[in-house]
Design a protein that fits this description.
184 residues; 13-stranded antiparallel beta sheet
Length: 184
């Protein structure tokens, strides 16, 4: 398996609850990525994520078990959790970090669940194509050497792209990068 698309990965009622509880752009706990490689927001602290979003993340973690082999989910959500992109937002072509920055783990899979259907903001996986955000659709892909990006959310759109993200890991010593590698 290199890429799995799971439609209705979690109940749509959980997707709707997560969107209803989603923090506004001025939420003080967003981490802002705004530069030449990205224009997006990400949550950085599991304890501050709204309960409905945590419930959706936990349901997603259970739903992807058949797709991640012997790997496991990082429930501390290091660099995972809630992500959103404003109109005009994007994430440049990159490889995800190979190694956990705190624990001796190697990343095996990246998992993205769409919360809403933004205009644009498609996940592009090199060699597999482009995937539009569809509420409740999860995309699971093997992390190793998988170049990917998120296309620009249409600037005229009034919708922000909202997703939940998880990472799966294996408990093995890792000597690679602890941060994403963006195309030069």
């Amino acid at each position: 398996m290199a890429v799995e698309i799971i439609n209705n990965a979690i109940p749509l009622s959980l997707v709707r609850a997560a969107e209803a509880a989603w923090p506004s752009p001025d939420w003080p706990f967003w981490h802002r990525y705004n530069g030449k490689t990205a224009n997006k927001f990400g949550s950085m602290d599991r304890s501050r994520i709204p309960a409905a979003c945590l419930a959706a993340l936990d349901a997603l973690a259970l739903a992807v078990v058949p797709y991640i082999g012997d790997s496991f989910i990082d429930y501390d959500l290091h660099a995972a959790g809630m992500h959103m992109m404003p109109p005009g937002g994007f994430l440049g072509r990159h490889l995800d970090a190979e190694c956990h920055p705190i624990r001796p783990w190697r990343r095996t899979h990246s998992i993205v669940l769409a919360i809403n259907a933004a205009h644009g903001g498609n996940l592009t996986l090199e060699g597999f194509g482009m995937f539009a955000p569809v509420p409740g659709r999860a995309i699971v892909f093997e992390t190793a050497n998988q170049w990917h990006e998120v296309t620009q959310v249409e600037p005229e759109s009034k919708l922000w792209r909202k997703t939940l993200a998880l990472f799966a890991w294996s408990a093995e010593q890792c000597t690679g990068s602890t941060s994403a590698h963006f195309e030069a």
